[in-house]
Predict the 3D structure of the following.
Amino acid sequence: MIQIEDKRRCCGCEACRQVCPKGCIRLECDEEGFGYPIVDADRCIECHKCERVCPFMKLDAPREPQAVYAACATDEGLRKASSSGGLFTLLAEETLRRGGVVFGARFDETWGVCHDYTETVEGLAPFRGSKYLQSRIGESYRQAEQFLKEGRLVLFTGTPCQIKGLVHYLGRTYENLTTVDVVCHGVPSPMVWQRYLTTLRAGQGEITGISFRDKSLSGWRRYDFVAQSTGGGGVRQFYGDNIYMRGFLHDLYLRPSCYACMAKGGRSQSDLTLGDYWGVERTCPDLDRALDEDKGTSVVLIHSAQGQRLLEGLPCRYQETNYASAVAGNPAIEHTAAEPPKRQLFFEQINAEPLDSLIARLTATPLHKRLWRQLHHRAHRIKMRLRRLAQRSH
Ligand SMILES: Cc1cc2nc3c(=O)[nH]c(=O)nc-3n(C[C@H](O)[C@H](O)[C@H](O)COP(=O)(O)OP(=O)(O)OC[C@H]3O[C@@H](n4cnc5c(N)ncnc54)[C@H](O)[C@@H]3O)c2cc1C
Ligand code: SF4
Ligand code: SF4
Ligand code: SF4
């Protein structure tokens, strides 16, 4: 039976829990807010299925993609509503058009994040946009398997370790399955996110909407974190000034497995990988200008012939580039975050100090750098506003 001795070797994919024939595995959150499997040994029949599906039991070698593209949706509205170039929605719409089912991550009623599926175009909206915390996979591997066995097309999206977990859970290939993972910085603790929400709610009323990557005022590169709440209140902050995003980007509260990732760099066995094409203005200057550079461009890594066929049929503009330039602009494609020495201190102090001051203290940026960043962001916003006005007057 499965036993977690090293937390770095469990990504919380729940493949073990979903495969157990006796239903004797449950996930329990630790003091950092990450779920780990616990087995009821009295009911276990020692079938070892949980060990066989665990993605850590068979580690794959890194894989370079077969092809690399800079791409984005031709629909400007969709591009704006998506974190990068809107490729997820295009792939999903194509799957639905062919009678398929799409799995992705959405907010739940407490603004936590869980995996779910949809069979309608309207049902895609909740999956759109990156949510920077760990998504609970729930029963989605079982549900996907059921659809696959019925012969339905399935598009399954998630982090690389969630895709690797699915591949191990299924234990065989399906021609009607397409898997898409994201370039993954790592997933923050859902418990830290809930604590951050408590500070947000104080004096703000109920939260009605959250976007980790709002492009509407500041564009794609210098996006805002936005939370709307009842009574017109809420928060809009440049991501570098938002305290939750700051802790996330300083790697302060990622899942332990994210400091020893076994799935990124093409090891998840996905058909395609999607991320931001940072540096597209250097790699494809003509495409960047033609696309209006700050609306979002995706990096698309193709790992299979099926992935290539899918991309070619989509309503998007794309240009082939190369892997080296994609990784140079976006090291997270391969690079795993290093555990910061202050991470342990963060979790030791989390109950002793208000969250915002704790994160601010542990990620302290010198005052002159903060002021410079704020000034730069304001200037950038004015530039964006002037550009929008100029576009309108044409
Ligand atoms: C936790 C996380 C970390 C990321 N880190 C990076 C990074 O370092 N560098 C980079 O270039 N890109 C990163 N991305 C990917 C990037 O933010 C976009 O999600 C990706 O480029 C797809 O954008 P899109 O415009 O095609 O579609 P969008 O509509 O923006 O993408 C939505 C897709 O992301 C999935 N998704 C959203 N939240 C989660 C979640 N919590 N868990 C699993 N799946 C989720 C949805 O199911 C859907 O498939 C990260 C995404 C997540 C979720
Ligand atoms: S060994 Fe079999 S019965 Fe026991 S926990 Fe694992 S899957 Fe369940
Ligand atoms: S990585 Fe997934 S399958 Fe392995 S122990 Fe953790 S939750 Fe279970
Ligand atoms: S960094 Fe690796 S282990 Fe962490 S969520 Fe991403 S794919 Fe999973």
The chain has a mean pLDDT of 92. Residues 367-393 form the longest helix (27 residues). The pocket of flavin-adenine dinucleotide (ligand 1) is lined by residues 82-89, 104-105, 113, 127-133, 135, 157-159, 182-185, 187, 274-276, 298, 330, 332 (CB under 6 Å). The chain has three domains: 7-57, 67-188+253-333, 190-251+353-386.
